[in-house]
Write a structure and sequence with these properties.
Number of domains: 2
Helix content: over 70%
Shape: flat
Distance between the termini: 23 Å
Low-confidence stretches: none
Largest sheet: none
Number of helices: 7
Radius of gyration: 20 Å
Strand content: under 5%
Mean pLDDT: 87
Length: 120
């Protein structure tokens, strides 16, 4: 059931990526819409809150100041993803989620006969 949920999420991300690609192709006057720009247009406050939460509570260097290192999750990694075209990033994540969820469905099914052969 959880893998079915992830398949739905993967399909939604892939379809939204195709829609963004199509809008980028049809609008020749402007450049591709960036992921950060799309997120900011949708919910600007959540972008700032997410940065603060990741820097303070998820990043190991921000979580444990005694390590003495700079935070590395938001600024080099996530901010780079936010500067890429939205269709590309959403398409990659959608396809990856679809591949992972479909492989778990194939791997997870066991029949009674296969369980008896394993001695269960």
């Amino acid at each position: 059931m959880i893998s079915r949920f992830f398949q739905i999420i993967g399909v939604i991300l892939t379809i939204s990526a195709l829609v963004l690609f199509w809008s980028d192709v049809m609008d020749s006057n402007s450049s591709s819409k960036l992921l950060g720009q799309l997120w900011y247009e949708t919910a600007p406050q959540s972008l700032q809150i997410t940065e603060a939460v990741i820097d303070r509570y998820i990043d190991p260097c921000g979580l444990m100041p005694f390590l003495g290192c700079d935070t590395f999750l938001w600024h080099p990694i996530i901010s780079t993803l936010l500067s890429w075209p939205a269709g590309f990033v959403l398409g990659i994540f959608g396809v990856l989620i679809l591949l992972i969820s479909s492989s778990t469905i194939k791997r997870g099914k066991k029949t009674v006969r296969s369980l008896k052969k394993e001695g269960r």
